[in-house]
Amino acid sequence: MNITQQNSPNHWDGRKGWKPDMIVCHITDGSYGGAVDWLCNPQSQASAHFVVSRAGEVTQLVDLQDGAWCNGTSSTPSSAYYTDKSTLAAVRSRGVNANYYTISIEHEGMYSQTHGALTEAQQAATVALIRYIRSEVQRIYGITIPIDRQHIVGHCEIAPQAKPTCPGEKFPFDAIIKALGGTVTQTASVSVHTAAAPSPTASSDNANIRTAQQWYNARGAGIAVDGIWGAATRKAATASVQRGCNQAYGSGLVIDGIWGPATAAVVRTLRSGSSNAAVYSLQAALMAHGYSIGNSGMDGKFGAGTEQAVRAYQRVAGLTADGLAGKATFAALCQ
Ligand SMILES: [Zn+2]
């Protein structure tokens, strides 16, 4: 494809040891030329790898092997860019600056006018560009970027609080993924624009989260009961899952509150009818994420309320909403 090169000084050389596996779509909220100029201006301290115009032209500003300054995240819980506020499990679990492992595409458009919708030429150019990016990343890093909504994402999913309208709710993710031959599934981004389901990273006081925090404290966690999902609650939730596995399966895990390969290896799939100590830890983790598990509360029995909460969480977390709490669900809950 035809790509104009115009190098921006706003980047790191290299990616701090990370390899890119996530493509992030943005909206410029300005003209194509204006965006290219601004993202090449040292004063902006911002950039993207590519900018796509409404006419379908593409300019590259930053080499794929270098980190662009487009999705800066924060490790400070009070920041609107805090990694734990992302709706993407990978962003939360990695906890590092998302610029290390992302490739950014800016799309010319004004959110107030388009809400992220692309022109036909622009959409075709984006599809071709993503195809090109995937083949280059394969060639350079030996990585195949999956064609799905966990790897082709919006800025609003990296930083829902700071960037809720980038690239906009009409951005054609599904059409792009279909054109690339991928499978369309319901995703985390939906939760950003509808109030139907709570965010997996509720950022305001939530009674379910308080209940879980109290439950963890009754078991020695010693965390603040503030109704907010954050690093301390996550650690308590993971420790609780580890304890649950030890009690239910005799796993002998070290209870360190850190989700790792040892914990992932012993977690078993829980389903409707399951009843053991691990179910308590699942119920608590769902509540810690802000979900109601129904009237029976934390009873260690995987009933209808727990199943409903699992499905709701899975939908928002971008997992297959099958109501089975297996490794992927526990990993997402604990990371
Ligand atoms: Zn953006």
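^ zinc ion complex. The beta strands are 4-5, 11-12, 22-27, 50-52, 58-60, 67-68, 102-107, 152-154. The two ends are 38 Å apart (CA to CA).
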